[in-house]
Amino acid sequence: MFYKNALGLLASAAILLAGTSAQAVTLSLSPGQAGPGGETTQGLYSDTAGATTIDFNSGVAPTTGFAVYSGGGTITSDEFAPFGPGGAVNTSPYLTFFQGSGVVEINFATSISYFGFDWGFIDGSNTVQIFNGSTLLASFTGADAFALGATFGSTAFANFTSSGPGDTFNRIVLLEAAGGGFESDNHAFVNIPEPMPPTTFLALLLGVALAVKLRSTKQVRKAF
To answer: What is the pTM of this model?
Structure first.
């Protein structure tokens, strides 16, 4: 019985390890929320549970760590900053760039399932490309935001979410395809814990099965 149960556990593990989903990343817009301390003059923050935020309040974009920024772009603070809750003026630093100034690339140390940002002064040529390595999974423009109810020049919190384990991503490219600017603030992401190696997972299952077997053996001996 022990070996039969162990084989059943191993078979279940193989199914779990092999499971995948159809690739898809979706865009949604939300009102966002105030900052972690209730701040309303620092732009919109993500309302996604467990999200980590890069707010650019230090005046620079990170070039080391879990999320690494490269390419064009400027961290500045002016009247074009993406608005905060209820249209509150954003007086904090934000990321901006224009056509011809290059693209902004964000590389994540491991896969993430969610990326979002305060999207300010939305125009149709603002473009967000989502990659898994060198594979382009999805591409969105301001026109897609308009289809969801945004209007030209408006501000909304944009959420890019994977639909399942097979849709995770680790690289974002922001670009401006025409003459306008691309303004964003409070970049947010949800990282995925490193998966347990298959050999470790199977060893744990065998350990659990062995513990159950030993416990059953002791109970039988005690009964006699």
So the answer is: 0.78
